[in-house]
Design goal:
Length: 514
């Protein structure tokens, strides 16, 4: 693995040191201090209320169209056609595009929420990942020169004005350093920080109003979701944080020879610009090209799923935006990860609870899974609600978990949970927004590449492995405390026996060889 940071001698020889700009141009972006949470609702002013009005009118008209499509000429409710839902999804996508970066990012997140939106909406919103209009190359050049305090020719032997990718927060140009390396140059959109901060204040105002009417859309913690979004979006806008995130990811996978993180030239990277190694390769969803190159698409998507199980259950640090544009299958077969602006971090306690949930799913332990849902905050029940809820949810999961594991579809399961969301106080906690996003994006890639792909089938040996490792550490600690240190306490012999049986199956079946 190449080192993350090259020294300046290798990149710019003394005879070719970049000259400083004599007169630094005016900055493209004003960088306000990161706002404190308690100030986000204040001082939106007249412009804020006009923006709020535009947002409400835009989505109000969309809602009216969706309502009309759901009624016949006599006003009776009817089932929408697939084409109607597709057109509504396209209309919603266009509204996000017109409202700018904050809403494009929101649309990208919603594109993974099959628990909230029809599949036709999901398909249309998915194009927001890599079909965002670019901004002018002249502006990109000006931002690069303002950030690096040098002229483009002082660093780059060539710089392509036509971007190779454009996303909600920035775009990517290709180029070549004066020392010969092919690079990708990621440049942030102009005036982004000001616009995002302003929109978040407006959205929090709207969310506070919506919170007064919880029956409008149940199952969503609007303020919590916006705060979670805010925390991630500010980190994602700081490209220097992305450089650090990439290095953490690189260290976590340094023993995985089939995973690659592009080299980042830190001396040419700032808060708004990243210069990194250019990686040629194939998209993980380009099945025909992968097969033509002698690659097995099933093995690639299996590897991708395994990396996420490691990230979620072992590292507690995960790439939260694994759409196809952020992944490449390299010529030598390695899987390369890009764009570490959006990452998630899991505390140890939450990791432990996720291991429990994965284990209960793959072992078809329905009562244990219901307890996980309560413990993880997906539902809060009174004693009376719990009496009614458990048989319903147990029946639902039992119906799915009685299927062969490969036949269980995560998105379909969430669709069937819809009536539970409206009957009981069910919600997806804000802290799970990016976990759900990552897992559903992975399954979308998996089913596109391999129709027989199932995330939980790949998860089975990992769930057992991490459950075994965790319980083993716990019991070893207890035995040492009692037998060696003489501490008081009861050894849970039932758990010891269960762990012994698990260990036998684990090693006999070879599930320890991942």
């Amino acid at each position: 693995m190449q080192e993350h940071e090259a020294n300046s001698t290798n990149l710019a020889p003394a005879s070719k040191q970049p000259a400083l700009i004599a007169s630094t141009p005016q900055p493209i972006i004003v960088r306000p201090a990161k706002p404190k949470p308690e100030t986000l609702d204040e001082r939106i002013g007249l412009r804020g209320y006009l923006r709020m009005l535009r947002i409400l009118i835009s989505f109000g008209l969309f809602g009216l169209r969706a309502f009309v499509n759901s009624r016949d000429w006599l006003g009776r409710k009817r089932e929408k056609t697939t084409e109607q839902r597709r057109q509504e999804g396209a209309s919603l996508r266009d509204k996000f595009l017109k409202l700018g970066p904050t809403f494009i990012k929101t649309g990208q997140t919603l594109a993974t929420r099959a628990d909230l939106l029809p599949i036709e909406y999901i398909q249309e919103l998915s194009s927001l990942q890599d079909e965002v209009p670019p901004f002018p190359a002249a502006v990109a050049r000006q931002i690069i020169e303002a950030e690096l305090h040098v002229k483009i020719p002082d660093i780059f032997e060539s710089f392509e004005d036509q971007p190779i990718a454009a996303a909600s927060l920035g775009q990517v140009h290709s180029g070549r350093l004066r020392t010969g390396q092919l690079v990708a140059i990621k440049v942030q959109r102009p005036n982004l920080a000001v616009q995002i901060e302003f929109d978040l204040r407006v959205l929090r105002r709207i969310a506070r109003f919506a919170a007064r009417y919880p029956n409008l859309v149940r199952g969503v913690d609007w303020l919590g979701t916006i705060d979670e979004f805010r925390a991630h979006i500010y980190e994602e806008m700081d490209y220097s944080a992305e450089v650090r995130n990439a290095e953490v990811f690189r260290r976590n996978f340094e023993k995985w020879p089939n995973i690659y993180v592009p080299r980042i030239y830190a001396i040419f990277s700032t808060r708004r610009v990243i210069v990194m190694e250019f990686i040629a390769g194939l998209k993980v969803t380009d099945v025909d090209a992968l097969r033509a190159a002698g690659r097995n698409p099933h093995e690639i998507v299996k590897l991708l799923a395994q990396t996420y199980l490691k990230q979620l259950l072992e590292d507690g640090f995960f790439h939260a935006d694994p759409h196809p544009g952020n992944l490449r299958v390299m010529e030598d077969g390695r899987l390369a990860f890009f764009d570490f602006g959006m990452v998630g971090r899991l505390p140890v306690e939450l990791q432990s609870q996720l291991i429990n949930a994965f284990f209960h799913i793959v072992e078809r332990d329905v009562p244990g899974l219901v307890e996980d849902m309560v413990r993880l905050g997906f539902i809060e029940l009174s004693p009376d609600e719990e009496t009614r809820f458990k048989p319903i949810i147990e029946g639902l999961f039992d119906r799915y978990l009685s299927l062969k594991l490969r036949d269980v579809n995560f998105k379909e399961l969430l669709f069937d949970l819809a009536h539970v969301i409206y009957e009981f106080p069910f919600r997806i906690p804000a802290s799970f927004t990016y976990i759900v996003r990552a897992v559903m994006t992975l399954e979308g890639i998996g089913t596109q590449v391999d129709p027989n792909f199932n995330f939980f089938e790949v998860a089975r040996p990992y769930a057992k492995r991490f459950m075994f490792m965790r319980e083993g550490r716990y019991l070893r600690s207890m035995l040492v405390n009692q037998l060696v240190r003489g501490e008081e306490g009861n050894i849970e012999w039932g758990k010891v026996w269960k762990l012994a049986k698990m260990a036998f199956k684990y090693y006999v079946r070879g599930e320890h060889k991942l």
